[in-house]
Amino acid sequence: GAADKGGWSSFMAKEVSEEPEAVANTLRGRSHDGVVTIPELEGLDDLFAGINRVIIVACGTASYAGMTAKYAFEQWTRIPVEVELAHEFRYRDPVIGPSTLVVSISQSGETMDTLMAVKFAREGGAKTVSICNTQGATIPRESDAIVYTHAGPEVAVASTKAFVAQITALYLLALHVSQVRGSQSKLAIADALRELEAIPAKISQILEREQAHIEQFAGWMADTRSVLFLGRHVGYPIALEGALKLKEISYIHAEGFAAGELKHGPIALIEPGQPVFVIVPSPRESAEMHKKVVSSIQEIRARGARVIVVAEEGDAAVLPYADEVLRIPLAGRLYEPLLAVVPLHIFAMGLATAKGLDVDQPRNLAKSVTVE
Ligand code: G6P
């Protein structure tokens, strides 16, 4: 009923508004004075010391959280990380063993494809950690260790607040592993924790400053038939997530691409009026990547694309080529995805709402798919 939505027009609207708390609650109680302290992982140091490979398995939005976290995980732990869709993983005879850590991600903890991947990993002798939002669900019960996301119950079929909580939990796990293995200095770990702690307030800022603007132009785009999303590095999985959300709830054809791949194919799709979202990396964090993404923008703009950029505050280089600019606060490169995804969630919701669709219960989809 309406009461459960707490006055919001939909569960999705409520859950997007809860993205700041989802991150804050997932961080709470898991660090102290710049040291990672995850109670659930106590006594497992040998497990984390003994791994030489990480495979992340998940489906849907959770898989994009995995793709996003791969960058931080590898950078901090120096352990090679692969991300694989859970339903593909066990059918390719993967090379796994006691020194493989398989990290599953599932909001519900009941997704059958993900559960079967975890069971398969265990049978192959791998160690398993579950990132899950639902206490006592099946996947965490089948795993050696659990790091719960504390996003609170997610009701809307399309996942939003669970996504930012999953990235947060994966970052905490990666920092924990770095700490156990000594692969990062104490100072670096404390810095990373400080960056994470600052995220909830920055997400709130996006909701306060940009939500009305995004909903307005999403409304203007209600008749759009196709939307493309481009991103590079950690912006790439965010582009995929932006496209998935739009497909899921607004039934608009949407594709996410790695910006560097544009010239290898997707640019053929650009015709006058084609809306393209571009996640622009911070020029402060990576001048080189920023320059490359801006030149991708120039190329699509020259072919008539309607460009909507998600860029950090103060980035003026994007202004001459952008039809719309969605601002996100400054953050370190690895933390940008936790911010850049928020405007995309708002956009998908705004567009579906403008089309008069039920954003909480999209056609043909289930919140949790418990069949293979
Ligand atoms: C379904 C939902 C998606 C979700 C995916 C994984 O397909 O419709 O929104 O991302 O399952 O769900 P999980 O509960 O495993 O995170």
From TrEMBL:
Catalyzed chemical reaction(s) = D-fructose 6-phosphate + L-glutamine = D-glucosamine 6-phosphate + L-glutamate
Keyword Transcription listed? The answer is no
According to the UniProt entry, its GO molecular function terms are: glutamine-fructose-6-phosphate transaminase (isomerizing) activity
Q: Which start and end residues of the full protein are shown?
A: 246 to 617 of 617
UniProt key word Cytoplasm:
yes
- Superkingdom is Bacteria
Task: Summarize the subunit comment.
Answer: Homodimer.
Signal sequence interval, chain numbering: none
Q: Give its E.C. classification number.
A: 2.6.1.16
- What protein am I looking at? Glutamine--fructose-6-phosphate aminotransferase [isomerizing]
* Compartments in which it is found: Cytoplasm
Active site residues according to the UniProt entry: 367
Q: Where is the SIS domain?
A: 44-183, 217-362
Alphabetically sorted, this entry's keywords are: Aminotransferase, Cytoplasm, Glutamine amidotransferase, Repeat, Transferase
Quote the function comment for this protein: Catalyzes the first step in hexosamine metabolism, converting fructose-6P into glucosamine-6P using glutamine as a nitrogen source.
